[in-house]
Please model this.
Amino acid sequence: MEPGSEFWASVGQSVAHSSGEWVVGVAGIVALAFVVGKYVLPVWRDAKRAASEIDKRRLELDVKSQADEDAQARDRIRLTERQLEIQAGQTRAIEALTAQTTALNAALDTSRANSAHMGQRVSAIDERTTRIEAGVAEIIDIAKARE
Model:
């Protein structure tokens, strides 16, 4: 809605009858409104747009950073899973070696027991052999004495 001709006529008459201070004040306000509309508002709008773009870029970087962190977390999880698999394999190998060592120790204990038994038998055979040799030597001495 535009002001009518009566409005402008009354504004003109008010200005004509007013003191110069009012005219300068109104002109100053109009000039200030012109400067604000012509220079300040576009700069303010550009600053707002630039701030909005910076916020948008910051959000995009935050999203990308979060995606990178998620990818790194997934990689760490995969590495941890692999390490756990390797450790499980090592544990199985150690358990197998422990079982094998236990079996070998049992075989070694059996071998020691058999060796000790065999040593006792050899000692007994040696004693018998020594007695037999002594008996044979005695028989030979008796046979030589009879000759």
User: Anything to note?
Assistant: Residues 20-146 form the longest helix (127 residues). The radius of gyration is 58 Å.
